[in-house]
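Kindly review both lines to help learners:
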Amino acid sequence: MTQLKKSDVRLDTECRPDFPALHQDISSHPLVYLDNAASAQQPSTVIDAVAYYQRHDHANVHRGVHTLSYRATEAYEGARDKIQSFINAAKRSEIVLTSGTTESINLVAQSFCRPRLAAGDKILITHLEHHSNIVPWQLLCEQTGAELVVAPINKSGELRTEAFDQLLTDDVRIVAIAHVSNALGTINPVKDIIAKAKSRNIAVLLDGAQSVPHMPVDVQDLGCDFYAFSAHKMFGPTGVGVLFGREAVLDAMPPYQGGGDMILEVSFDGTTYNDLPYKFEAGTPNISGVVGLGAAVDYLRSVGMTRIAQHEQQLLEYMTRRLEGIDGMRLIGTATEKASVQSFLVDDIHPHDLGTILDHQGVAIRTGHHCAMPVMDFYGVAGTARASLALYNNIEDVDRLIEAIAKARHIFG
């Protein structure tokens, strides 16, 4: 592992002042925030962008000729352009704005897959998936008679690629896989998976919720059909997200929901749907959330995704090494290729008890099943403690985590 010195990590020094929530005390201790895989904190630029919109530009988009509506529309559509550039989509029409990763996956399941699937067809996922990339496919199987097939993992938390290849048969209609596991941090070999699927003309959806905030993502280079992610994991507001879809694929899909803004003409005899991407954006959207997402994209690009990935990789290696040095420590998920997440158990301390004791020392981690119960079942545990990193974390945060765990072990004898 890389030997990390305090002088090696500079990104946090640059970025940490930008995040007001980090500068507070919890239980008389400075906050150490290590729950970024659930929701990352927001920089002042995001908070200010949302507040400015609310104070000056709030109006409905696309439908008004007055000044406020025009300004709101400019801000909303400007965010779409930023997202397109950020993930290198070929066209702005390929960026569908949703309420988050969950809605994006459900949209694909119901609009792309449901009309195409029948009994005997298969949907291929992996044992690593978040519930949001399991349950929508189970519902779809109930609706269509299709079969959900699950590719296994090994004890390190890595996809067993040989088994995956055997399951990638001609009756698979879509592969839906996490780019990065939220519970284990495993980075899946998605480019190879996409190439294998494409050789059989099988569609691929990537759950990018845990990858977009932590590494460069180029959807054209990946070659996927769909890529889904959420704003709140990438330093933006909650309740907003993105579905990237290749234009030809989206164009052939029926609308997911009906209502205002997804139409061109409505009569009682029938409806003409709007052009892409608006065909999939029924109703008044989360305008302020999209504005905030656009500001979050600006912030990430100003820092640089390659710099972020390098900083977090160094910090993850340091955190892993420190955790390994604790007596009674069991690391859950030890894949060779990982990003920003480490799950663990300490002695026989229940994760919720551990999380509570850490919180009393100002250290915020996540405890439980992390919306990945099948992963927990695989390891034979009910849940884990999970520390997840972001660009503003530093080695002092990791040292505080280690000290807090030591105190918890002392308390439990």
